[in-house]
Amino acid sequence: NALSLQGVMDFTVPSAGSDGKAVHLVATADIADLSVFGIGVANNGGGTDGMEYSLDSVSASSGDDILIVRSEEAMSAYFADCYGEFEIVLVGSSAIGQNGDDAIELYEGETVIETFGDIDTDGTGEAWEYMDSWAYKFDGEWTYGAVNCTDGSTTSAVSNCPYPLCGGVEPT
Q1: φ/ψ (deg, to 5) at 69
Q2: Could you tell me if 100 and 117 are in contact, meaning their C-beta atoms sit under 8 angstroms apart?
Q3: Cβ neighbours around 96 below 10 Å, total
C-alpha cells in the first residue's frame, strides 16, 4: 500500500475536549492525490461505520509523515518543536473522534487496507488501549504509551510518554 497507519493519538492537551485526537499516516510511495484515501473510526467496538473522513486532495512524497488533527492550533502547541516533523498536516472532521479505545481503519477507495485494533471490540482494558496516550508502529509492530500518560502535560516533550516521532524512546 502507498499509505500506512503510523500512529493514533488521544492526547490530553491543555485546551481539552477533542483537540488532542489525531491519526498519523506515512506515505510509503509517492501519491499524486491523497483524497483516494480515508479514515474510519470504529467507536466502542460497534463495528465499522465505513469511511468517515476523506483526506484532502494534495500530493505526498514517499516517506512523508501526515498528521490528521482535530485542532491544528492545539496539536501545533502540544508537539511544539516536533510539529515540523510532519510534512503534511490535515484538519480532520469530527469523525476523527477516537476515545483511546476505538479501532481505526485506513481506506483506499472503498477498501480497508489497514486496521489498528479490533473494530468489533471496545478497547478499554485491551492491550491496544491508548486512552490519553498514543499507539505507534515500530518496524511493523504496534507499541503504546501508558494509559493516561499525557494527563497534566503541556507538550509531548514534557509528558510521561513523549510521542516516538518527537524523540520519545520505544517503550519497554
Answers
A1: -115, 160
A2: no
A3: 22
User: How far is Cα 6 from Cα 21, in angstroms, rounded to an integer?
Assistant: 14
CA distance 20 to 23: 10
Quote the cell numbers at residue 69.
488533527
Tell me the DSSP string of 56-75: PS--B-TT-EEEEES-HHHH
pLDDT digits (tens, 9 = 90+) for 91-114: 998 888 899 999 999 999 999 999
How far apart CA 61 and CA 40 sit, in angstroms, is 23
φ, ψ of residue 75 to 5 degrees: the values are -75, -35
The span from the CA of 56 to the CA of 11, in Å, is: 23
- pLDDT tens-digit profile of 31-43? 999 999 999 999 9
In sequence order, what are the beta bridge partners of 10? Answer: 21
